[in-house]
Fold this protein.
Amino acid sequence: MRYPPNISEVQQTFPDFEVICQIGQGGQKTVFEVVRKADNKRFVLKILNPQASIERVQREIQAMLVVDSPYVAGVAEYQQRISPTGGITFIIEDFIPGEVLRTKLEIGTIYTPDAAIKFLDMVLQGLQACAEKNIVHRDIKPENIIIRPDESPVIIDFGIARHLDQTSLTETSRIWGICTPPYASPEVLEYRKDQIDARSDLFSLGVTGYEMLTGSHPLWVWGDRNDLNFERMLRHTPQPLTALMPAIPEELSKFILRMMNKDRFRRFRDAAFAREKLRVIALDCGITI
Protein backbone atom coordinates (compact mmCIF):
# COMPACT_ATOMS: atom_id res chain seq x y z
CA MET A 1 0.00 0.00 0.00
CA ARG A 2 1.29 3.42 -0.91
CA TYR A 3 1.46 6.20 1.65
CA PRO A 4 -0.67 8.11 2.27
CA PRO A 5 -3.38 5.56 1.43
CA ASN A 6 -6.83 6.47 0.17
CA ILE A 7 -10.10 5.07 1.50
CA SER A 8 -10.41 2.50 -1.30
CA GLU A 9 -6.95 1.08 -0.59
CA VAL A 10 -7.63 0.89 3.13
CA GLN A 11 -10.96 -0.85 2.49
CA GLN A 12 -9.27 -3.51 0.36
CA THR A 13 -6.59 -4.09 2.97
CA PHE A 14 -9.00 -4.29 5.93
CA PRO A 15 -12.03 -6.23 4.61
CA ASP A 16 -13.31 -6.95 8.14
CA PHE A 17 -13.98 -3.26 8.61
CA GLU A 18 -16.09 -0.69 6.80
CA VAL A 19 -14.08 2.48 6.30
CA ILE A 20 -16.35 5.42 7.08
CA CYS A 21 -14.08 8.38 6.43
CA GLN A 22 -10.62 9.82 6.80
CA ILE A 23 -10.43 11.95 9.93
CA GLY A 24 -6.85 13.14 9.87
CA GLN A 25 -3.49 13.08 8.15
CA GLY A 26 0.00 14.12 9.18
CA GLY A 27 3.58 13.32 8.43
CA GLN A 28 3.58 10.27 10.68
CA LYS A 29 0.13 8.74 10.19
CA THR A 30 -3.17 8.83 8.33
CA VAL A 31 -6.25 8.26 10.47
CA PHE A 32 -9.59 6.71 9.53
CA GLU A 33 -12.88 6.04 11.27
CA VAL A 34 -13.89 2.41 10.72
CA VAL A 35 -16.67 0.06 11.79
CA ARG A 36 -16.03 -3.60 12.52
CA LYS A 37 -18.54 -5.53 10.45
CA ALA A 38 -18.87 -8.39 12.93
CA ASP A 39 -20.42 -6.27 15.71
CA ASN A 40 -20.89 -2.79 14.21
CA LYS A 41 -18.44 -1.31 16.73
CA ARG A 42 -16.54 1.84 15.77
CA PHE A 43 -12.75 2.20 15.98
CA VAL A 44 -9.99 4.54 14.89
CA LEU A 45 -7.52 3.02 12.43
CA LYS A 46 -4.11 4.66 12.15
CA ILE A 47 -1.94 3.79 9.14
CA LEU A 48 1.67 4.68 9.90
CA ASN A 49 4.04 6.27 7.45
CA PRO A 50 6.62 3.61 6.43
CA GLN A 51 9.28 6.13 7.46
CA ALA A 52 7.86 6.40 10.98
CA SER A 53 9.93 5.03 13.85
CA ILE A 54 8.58 1.62 14.88
CA GLU A 55 10.02 2.13 18.35
CA ARG A 56 8.19 5.45 18.66
CA VAL A 57 4.95 3.70 17.64
CA GLN A 58 5.58 1.03 20.26
CA ARG A 59 6.03 3.73 22.86
CA GLU A 60 2.82 5.44 21.75
CA ILE A 61 0.92 2.20 22.32
CA GLN A 62 2.69 1.61 25.63
CA ALA A 63 1.68 5.06 26.85
CA MET A 64 -1.97 4.48 25.96
CA LEU A 65 -1.93 1.07 27.64
CA VAL A 66 -0.34 2.06 30.96
CA VAL A 67 -2.12 5.38 31.58
CA ASP A 68 -5.43 4.67 33.31
CA SER A 69 -7.72 7.68 33.16
CA PRO A 70 -11.16 8.43 31.71
CA TYR A 71 -9.55 11.54 30.22
CA VAL A 72 -6.88 9.69 28.21
CA ALA A 73 -7.58 7.63 25.08
CA GLY A 74 -6.84 3.92 25.10
CA VAL A 75 -5.81 1.28 22.55
CA ALA A 76 -8.53 -1.22 21.73
CA GLU A 77 -7.88 -4.16 24.01
CA TYR A 78 -8.10 -6.83 21.36
CA GLN A 79 -5.47 -5.08 19.24
CA GLN A 80 -2.66 -4.35 21.68
CA ARG A 81 0.07 -4.72 19.08
CA ILE A 82 1.67 -3.28 15.96
CA SER A 83 0.81 -5.36 12.90
CA PRO A 84 3.06 -5.01 9.85
CA THR A 85 1.25 -6.64 6.91
CA GLY A 86 2.70 -6.19 3.47
CA GLY A 87 4.72 -3.20 4.58
CA ILE A 88 1.80 -1.68 6.52
CA THR A 89 2.06 -0.72 10.16
CA PHE A 90 -1.21 0.13 11.86
CA ILE A 91 -2.82 0.75 15.22
CA ILE A 92 -6.48 0.24 16.08
CA GLU A 93 -7.85 2.35 18.92
CA ASP A 94 -11.20 2.76 20.62
CA PHE A 95 -13.36 5.35 18.90
CA ILE A 96 -14.20 8.34 21.09
CA PRO A 97 -17.49 9.98 20.09
CA GLY A 98 -17.37 13.72 20.17
CA GLU A 99 -15.77 16.74 18.56
CA VAL A 100 -12.16 17.83 18.43
CA LEU A 101 -11.64 20.95 20.52
CA ARG A 102 -10.09 22.73 17.53
CA THR A 103 -13.38 22.40 15.65
CA LYS A 104 -15.24 24.12 18.46
CA LEU A 105 -12.70 26.95 18.57
CA GLU A 106 -12.78 27.41 14.80
CA ILE A 107 -16.52 28.13 14.87
CA GLY A 108 -15.95 30.81 17.49
CA THR A 109 -16.79 28.94 20.70
CA ILE A 110 -15.67 30.92 23.75
CA TYR A 111 -15.71 29.00 27.01
CA THR A 112 -17.19 30.55 30.12
CA PRO A 113 -14.97 30.55 33.24
CA ASP A 114 -17.23 27.86 34.71
CA ALA A 115 -16.87 25.57 31.67
CA ALA A 116 -13.14 26.29 31.32
CA ILE A 117 -12.40 25.47 34.97
CA LYS A 118 -14.24 22.15 34.70
CA PHE A 119 -12.42 21.38 31.42
CA LEU A 120 -9.00 22.24 32.87
CA ASP A 121 -9.64 20.11 35.96
CA MET A 122 -10.44 17.05 33.86
CA VAL A 123 -7.46 17.48 31.52
CA LEU A 124 -5.22 17.98 34.56
CA GLN A 125 -6.51 14.67 35.91
CA GLY A 126 -5.45 13.05 32.63
CA LEU A 127 -2.02 14.70 32.78
CA GLN A 128 -1.67 13.63 36.41
CA ALA A 129 -2.25 10.01 35.34
CA CYS A 130 0.43 10.44 32.64
CA ALA A 131 2.90 11.91 35.12
CA GLU A 132 2.37 8.99 37.49
CA LYS A 133 3.73 6.76 34.70
CA ASN A 134 6.61 9.17 33.93
CA ILE A 135 5.07 10.12 30.58
CA VAL A 136 5.10 13.62 29.08
CA HIS A 137 2.60 13.97 26.23
CA ARG A 138 4.56 16.83 24.58
CA ASP A 139 1.76 17.71 22.15
CA ILE A 140 -1.19 19.02 24.17
CA LYS A 141 -3.19 21.26 21.82
CA PRO A 142 -6.81 21.69 20.66
CA GLU A 143 -6.28 19.13 17.87
CA ASN A 144 -5.36 16.47 20.42
CA ILE A 145 -8.32 16.85 22.76
CA ILE A 146 -11.72 15.37 21.92
CA ILE A 147 -14.79 16.78 23.66
CA ARG A 148 -17.36 14.05 24.34
CA PRO A 149 -21.09 14.78 24.07
CA ASP A 150 -21.17 15.24 27.89
CA GLU A 151 -18.45 17.94 27.49
CA SER A 152 -15.73 15.86 29.15
CA PRO A 153 -12.33 16.01 27.40
CA VAL A 154 -10.14 13.11 26.27
CA ILE A 155 -6.42 13.49 25.50
CA ILE A 156 -5.46 11.67 22.31
CA ASP A 157 -2.37 11.05 20.16
CA PHE A 158 0.71 10.05 22.14
CA GLY A 159 2.79 9.87 18.96
CA ILE A 160 5.60 12.08 20.30
CA ALA A 161 5.15 11.34 24.01
CA ARG A 162 8.34 11.17 26.03
CA HIS A 163 8.87 8.39 28.57
CA LEU A 164 11.14 9.99 31.15
CA ASP A 165 12.49 6.64 32.32
CA GLN A 166 13.49 5.53 28.80
CA THR A 167 16.19 6.59 26.37
CA SER A 168 15.23 9.51 24.14
CA LEU A 169 14.48 8.65 20.50
CA THR A 170 15.28 12.15 19.24
CA GLU A 171 18.83 13.11 18.33
CA THR A 172 20.39 15.55 20.79
CA SER A 173 21.80 17.69 17.96
CA ARG A 174 18.35 18.92 16.86
CA ILE A 175 17.98 22.72 16.94
CA TRP A 176 14.19 22.58 17.37
CA GLY A 177 12.30 19.86 19.18
CA ILE A 178 9.65 17.56 17.73
CA CYS A 179 6.53 19.49 18.66
CA THR A 180 3.71 21.78 17.52
CA PRO A 181 5.44 25.17 17.93
CA PRO A 182 2.37 27.32 18.78
CA TYR A 183 1.73 25.13 21.84
CA ALA A 184 5.26 24.12 22.83
CA SER A 185 6.96 25.30 25.99
CA PRO A 186 10.35 27.00 25.52
CA GLU A 187 12.23 23.90 26.68
CA VAL A 188 10.33 21.68 24.23
CA LEU A 189 10.61 24.17 21.39
CA GLU A 190 14.38 24.52 21.84
CA TYR A 191 14.70 20.81 22.66
CA ARG A 192 16.41 21.22 26.00
CA LYS A 193 15.55 17.61 26.65
CA ASP A 194 17.00 17.40 30.15
CA GLN A 195 14.42 20.06 31.14
CA ILE A 196 11.35 18.45 29.56
CA ASP A 197 8.99 17.13 32.22
CA ALA A 198 5.36 17.29 33.37
CA ARG A 199 5.57 21.10 33.55
CA SER A 200 6.04 21.16 29.78
CA ASP A 201 2.53 19.76 29.31
CA LEU A 202 1.18 22.36 31.73
CA PHE A 203 2.54 25.13 29.49
CA SER A 204 0.73 23.67 26.47
CA LEU A 205 -2.49 23.32 28.45
CA GLY A 206 -2.14 26.94 29.52
CA VAL A 207 -1.94 28.07 25.89
CA THR A 208 -5.00 25.95 25.08
CA GLY A 209 -6.94 27.34 28.05
CA TYR A 210 -6.05 30.91 27.03
CA GLU A 211 -7.48 30.27 23.56
CA MET A 212 -10.64 28.70 24.99
CA LEU A 213 -11.36 31.65 27.26
CA THR A 214 -10.43 34.52 24.93
CA GLY A 215 -10.74 33.18 21.38
CA SER A 216 -7.17 34.32 20.71
CA HIS A 217 -3.77 32.64 20.84
CA PRO A 218 -1.67 34.35 23.52
CA LEU A 219 1.53 34.61 21.46
CA TRP A 220 1.39 33.04 18.01
CA VAL A 221 0.22 35.23 15.11
CA TRP A 222 -1.10 33.00 12.33
CA GLY A 223 0.45 33.96 8.99
CA ASP A 224 3.37 35.80 10.59
CA ARG A 225 6.98 34.78 9.97
CA ASN A 226 8.17 31.80 12.00
CA ASP A 227 11.17 33.64 13.40
CA LEU A 228 8.87 36.30 14.89
CA ASN A 229 6.48 33.71 16.25
CA PHE A 230 9.31 31.67 17.76
CA GLU A 231 10.69 34.81 19.40
CA ARG A 232 7.30 35.51 20.97
CA MET A 233 6.98 31.91 22.20
CA LEU A 234 10.44 32.01 23.72
CA ARG A 235 10.68 35.56 25.07
CA HIS A 236 7.37 37.42 25.29
CA THR A 237 4.85 37.49 28.12
CA PRO A 238 1.22 37.26 26.98
CA GLN A 239 -1.41 39.79 27.98
CA PRO A 240 -3.48 38.91 31.04
CA LEU A 241 -6.70 37.24 29.97
CA THR A 242 -8.63 39.96 31.77
CA ALA A 243 -7.28 42.51 29.29
CA LEU A 244 -9.21 40.70 26.55
CA MET A 245 -12.13 39.40 28.57
CA PRO A 246 -12.78 41.52 31.71
CA ALA A 247 -15.40 39.04 32.94
CA ILE A 248 -12.73 36.36 33.51
CA PRO A 249 -11.89 36.09 37.24
CA GLU A 250 -8.51 37.61 38.02
CA GLU A 251 -7.30 34.46 39.78
CA LEU A 252 -8.19 32.30 36.78
CA SER A 253 -6.22 34.65 34.51
CA LYS A 254 -3.22 34.37 36.85
CA PHE A 255 -3.60 30.59 36.94
CA ILE A 256 -3.44 30.33 33.13
CA LEU A 257 -0.46 32.70 32.94
CA ARG A 258 1.39 30.73 35.62
CA MET A 259 1.04 27.55 33.60
CA MET A 260 2.53 29.47 30.65
CA ASN A 261 5.48 30.96 32.51
CA LYS A 262 8.66 30.78 30.41
CA ASP A 263 10.55 29.66 33.52
CA ARG A 264 9.36 26.13 34.20
CA PHE A 265 10.27 26.52 37.90
CA ARG A 266 7.65 29.28 38.14
CA ARG A 267 4.91 27.02 36.78
CA PHE A 268 3.03 24.58 38.99
CA ARG A 269 5.33 21.71 39.89
CA ASP A 270 2.91 19.12 38.46
CA ALA A 271 -0.69 18.56 37.40
CA ALA A 272 -1.76 17.41 40.88
CA PHE A 273 -0.58 20.67 42.46
CA ALA A 274 -2.20 22.70 39.66
CA ARG A 275 -5.50 20.91 40.37
CA GLU A 276 -5.28 21.88 44.05
CA LYS A 277 -4.89 25.55 43.12
CA LEU A 278 -7.65 25.33 40.50
CA ARG A 279 -10.06 23.89 43.07
CA VAL A 280 -9.45 26.90 45.32
CA ILE A 281 -10.29 29.21 42.40
CA ALA A 282 -13.41 27.17 41.65
CA LEU A 283 -14.51 27.39 45.28
CA ASP A 284 -14.01 31.17 45.31
CA CYS A 285 -16.08 31.43 42.11
CA GLY A 286 -18.85 29.19 43.46
CA ILE A 287 -18.08 26.52 40.83
CA THR A 288 -18.38 22.82 41.65
CA ILE A 289 -15.77 20.49 40.13
